Amino acid sequence: MDNKNQHKQPSATGITLLKKMTEKSNGSLSNAIGHRALSRYSVPAKPLQIDTVVQLARGKNVVLLAGTGFGKSRIAEIYYDLVPKHTKGVVLVLNPLDALGNNQVSEKKAAGFVAINLTKLTFNPTKAPKIRHGEYSFVYLSPEIFLNSKLFSSIYFSAEFQSRLALVVVDEAHLIYHWGMVKSTRGKKKTSALATCPPKPLRAIQRNLRMDSANLVTLRGELTRPEIRIIRVFMKGSMALFADLADLYLPISGTPNMKIVPSLIYCNTQRRTGQALEVLANARGTPNDSSKARSLFARRYHSVTGEQDKQDVERDFGEGVFPVITCTMALGLGQNWTHVRSVVHMGQGDPSAICQMIGCCGRDGKPGLAILFVEKTRTNGKNSISQFKAGVDQSDDDRMDALAVTPVCLRIAFAVDNLYGYIPLSTQDDVYQVEMARKKSQGFVGCRCSNCLPAEASRLMKHMGNLSIDIFDDVVLSDLHTNGPAKEIRKTTSHQRVNEDPLSAEETKDFQTELMTTATSWISPRLGEHSFLCAQDIFGPDEIYAIIKKIDTLEDEEDVRVVVGGHHFTGIGSDGLVVH
Fold this sequence. Notes:
Layout: H1 19-22, H2 26-41, H3 47-57, E1 61-65, H4 72-80, E2 90-94, H5 98-110, E3 115-118, H6 127-132, E4 138-141, H7 143-148, H8 150-156, H9 159-164, E5 165-171, H10 176-179, E6 190-194, H11 199-208, E7 216-220, E8 228-234, E9 263-266, H12 270-283, E10 298-301, H13 307-318, E11 324-327, E12 342-346, H14 351-358, E13 368-374, H15 396-405, H16 410-420, H17 430-441, H18 454-462, H19 472-477, H20 505-527, H21 535-538, H22 541-549, H23 557-564
Parallel strand pairs: 1-6, 1-7, 2-4, 2-5, 3-4, 5-6, 8-13, 9-11, 9-12, 10-11, 12-13
Helix pairs in contact: 2-3, 3-4, 16-17, 20-22
């Protein structure tokens, strides 16, 4: 072989890759990696997957940005295939959430690898020697264990484990921006896999992982998922009630559970996952279903859900036992459930996180539907384009508000946010026009989001209750007409919709102030100076808004409790407090 084509073995880790592979030129190495991947998976590896493995084999640190469903987790498997079997090399994967680790461990086991997810419950002194001796090819763990566990530190910094450490992978690496500094990995080759990451967090990741720019390669794939249709909907009701979810489903007599579109409904608090279950159960005509742990329609998942319940939800949903999960981000943003077809997000949220949430649908390449319920008026937020100053960088809160009001194509808005860290508010935005031209030049199918096709989106939402898995593809990919496969069926409710504005603007403002002042003055003295709650945690803007919207129907104290979702309890104060 010519000297110019010879490559020295990278010395960043204690593992030496197969000599016959590393001595190849980049072109030959790429071909060899592609052949090995095809032999293992029976499908060709993507060029960007191969390029990432080549860079790692040359001793480079890699930051990879690619859309959800790209196949980032497979890159570590392809790289591991270059590690000599006798070395018992280990790939260490940092996951932000235990649920993601469980999901990926299942995938690795199905692919023939030995893997373990280290959690507070599974990581103990019995497992430690097995990890050190290389009995697990893939070790998944959370940042908490990686940073704070003395037992894991004793393993990680041992000479034996360092000699086996082939690769460190940081999955969903943009969350490092929230974790803070991660301890040095002592020059080990690292790959950071991200589906979305604006520039500011990306710079923080490089700094926190101590990636030397001279040895760093950033690879970018396509972040846009054209198969996902995005519908933004202004909520008619309050975030405290989640009543808008009822419009998505018919009674069970109209659409049986087995025909419901597999969906994830993301809520912003643990309590609201339960509230969502209640609304859905009432919409289905099965009000008692919300309290059933083994419901065949919908279950919930959040950080305080019991470990066994979490496993049951993950397993049963993956096997198609029930079609809907109401959840918080504790479920994870990178779950590889290929049968998920729809994602619903309730309320305000970080655009990068929302982009990943909606990326959970359509992972099998089939059409997906993302529904973003946003508040028309957000307390202390910017509720119109005129409130944004031209030429001023958007803060994180501004990006959240901008996503709710922007009139531009939502698909391009997410793409611009991922690349440049802001939501465009005009089709005349220079970056917006460049991205639109790029998508046209690359032959992207026309966008069908609610900003591009508002009339069609409105018609779709009116008929959402009829949407079954049998007609899902046709409805998402084409216009829905009233004489088409779905017919609108109006649900009857036991209550009438009250006047949208029962009070004048001036009366509403005065009433809001009076409610807040009265509630604060009554609650604050009962909390005590060492309470972990403040008055607005118990009675705040959500509760006030709910009361105002239902003011014409409130007759007694019990009606108020129902509207704000509260009850009495004793413990924090000498009297009962209305809490939610």
